[in-house]
């Protein structure tokens, strides 16, 4: 009985050999495609992270507040070994006394270096009475 059953199974496999090969090939192609997609997705994600880091520097953590003190918890955090400081002091007001979206503030040298910030033309302020202003803000202030 056992040999008859085995012969029947082998005969069935021989008869369906083309279908089995096609199915195996299809499964292999699907497996390879999914593996390729996962690898590409991982590599693209790593490339995006590296590209962002090259363009904008390291990650920034900021705390908004009006007390003006540095946050000791952020300053002593092991992942934030290097840090810079950017402070917004006030806003620019228009002729009607309404507050605009243009802010006035300063950045430390570390913030500029870590943020990979550069000027398109000109230079950063060298003295206390100089200011670095983008072109659109100059136009808003009728200084351009």
Provide the spatial order of strands within the biggest beta sheet: 1-2
Extended strand count: 2
How much strand content do the residues show? 5-15%
**How much helix is in the residues?**
40-55%
Low-confidence stretches: none
Shape estimate: elongated
Sheet with most strands: 2 strands, antiparallel
How do the SSEs run, as a string of H and E?
A: HHHEEHH
List the domain count as a whole number: 2
- Average pLDDT figure: 79
Q: Which radius of gyration do the C-alpha atoms yield?
A: 32 Å
What attributes does this structure have?
144 residues, mainly alpha, two-stranded antiparallel ribbon, 5 helices, 12% strand
Task: Describe what this molecule looks like in 3D.
With 144 residues, the chain is mainly alpha-helical. The chain folds into two domains: 2-56; 72-140, no CATH class. Helix content is 49%, strand content 12%. The protein contains five helices and two strands; from the N terminus they run H-H-H-E-E-H-H. It has helices at residues 2-15, 17-56, 72-75, 109-114, 135-140, and strands at residues 86-93, 99-107. It has a two-stranded antiparallel ribbon with strand order 1-2. The N and C termini lie far apart (98 Å). The model has no long low-confidence stretch (mean pLDDT 79).
């Amino acid at each position: 009985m056992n040999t008859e059953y085995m012969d029947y199974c082998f005969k069935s496999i021989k008869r369906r050999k083309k279908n089995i090969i096609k199915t195996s090939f299809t499964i292999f192609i699907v497996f390879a495609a999914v593996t390729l997609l996962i690898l590409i997705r991982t590599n693209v994600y790593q490339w995006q992270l590296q590209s962002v880091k090259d363009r904008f520097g390291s990650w920034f953590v900021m705390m908004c507040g009006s007390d003006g003190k540095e946050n000791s918890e952020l300053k002593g955090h092991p992942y934030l070994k290097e840090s810079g400081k950017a402070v917004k002091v006030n806003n620019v007001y228009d002729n009607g006394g309404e507050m605009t979206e243009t802010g006035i503030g300063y950045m430390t040298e570390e913030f500029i270096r870590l943020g990979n910030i550069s000027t398109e033309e000109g230079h950063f302020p060298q003295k206390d009475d100089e200011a670095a202003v983008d072109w659109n803000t100059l136009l808003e202030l009728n200084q351009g």
